[in-house]
Design brief:
6-stranded mixed β-sheet; alpha/beta; 9-stranded mixed β-sheet
Amino acid sequence: MNFELKSFDLAAAAAFKCDALLLLVADGFKPGKDPLSQFVQQAVKAGDFETKAGKLLQSYQSAAVAAPRLVLAGAADGSARQLRKAVAAGVAACRANTVKRLLVLVAGAEPDDHGVRQLVQAAAEASYVYVTTKSVPEGRKLQKVTVGVADANAVRQGFAHGLAAVAGIEMAKEWGNRPANHATPTMLGEAARSLTRLPRIKCEVLGPREVAKLGMGSFMSVAQGSKEPLRFIVLHYNGGARDQAPQVLVGKGITFDTGGISIKPAAEMDEMKFDMCGAASVLGTFRALGELQPAVNVVGLIPSCENMPDAGALKPGDVVTSMSGQTIEVLNTDAEGRLILCDALTYAERFKPAAVVDIATLTGACVVALGGVHSGLFSPSEPLAAALLAAGASAHDSCWRMPLDDDYAEGLKSNFADVGNVGGRAGGAVSAAKFLQRFATQYPWAHLDIAGTAWKSGAAKGSTGRPVGLLLDYLVAQQASAPVAAPRKPARKAVASAARAPRKTKATPAAAA
């Protein structure tokens, strides 16, 4: 879909030729003498329309406007959040008709950079349609949206940010929504390579042989039950100075999760195609970076494979050796995301990062705790956690900070390895984060559990594209901020010593079987 930004007042909007005019009416609306203002005033006075966010009034062939359709949408106080609600409702109403060209204008409030950005993102969200695997694809009816403001030059930065975010979010949605046979690890690697057409982006895709040489025994152990070869994707966006320490994003890329030998129930297992939404969010964020071109260096790491119950699959009780040298007793093969992420977190050390953020649909426990509203945020670094919380608020892609006390790691103790991969049902999202923390002691680190926010079930089933908006805001903010300070000491002395253990150069027997 195409967007354009133009300077408009109500009179010019009324004369603009398009299929529909969506007028977002805020509480501060003061009618002028023009016909459109009078129409709005009469509707409010008659009680047929109110400015409460999302309230609608539709008119066809109104004498007040040149467009055949006029939609009034309440925008309450005109804040970015209320504008999102108003646009979502208004575009949904237009979507039901044959509207291809839409003009969106705010009356009674003038949106700033942030408001324009949210307006663009809301319009794209409300008109998004997945078509890739449909035999008769009915694409977006809405093809062009003109955003009207009093002074277009004053909000071009917000408009550009919104366009970049839309490009990234829609790429994440596309790959999240694809069925697993249309989104294999190999295909994800190809999608990553396609990003190199954008400025400043480079990509390297490693296969099983290269991953074995790195000693990623934990990652390899998950992949060994599938005929689809694993891929380890390394993306670079070089927008900052050469000596600027990069921000590293690590995305979980399980393209389908059966649970392995610890197989999941059949009900809703189809939704396990969404288990690579962490990887999709990294791809989407890089797409957005390529469009927006901020002055920051970013590395993206995506360990990707399937988790299948083949005869060669990982078994409960197997012990594997991670890239860090730490051994892991696999008590549950359905806790596989942490097994692939831990090796990627160790790999991240080589970049001497300013900070590392991993993004994963990791635990059902996080869904129970936070539902589909907030992503779970875990971090021992106060500055990093604060930066991510602020980014979530500004992007309307919120996260909620969760505890990371050492006591939660007690259940991970093993009699047969350095650590077990699960710690019991109680506090499962936290114990999963504690597992990952063992492999992230050499830099400021945060973990985003997006199991509740990455997709929706039911009639609205599909990927949300979260947390691309959060990640983009976080990275853009790093242009002007000082490097995030590392924690003074690791959470556990044993963890720190294990993370410094010599790297393995060969896969363990369990991983290579």
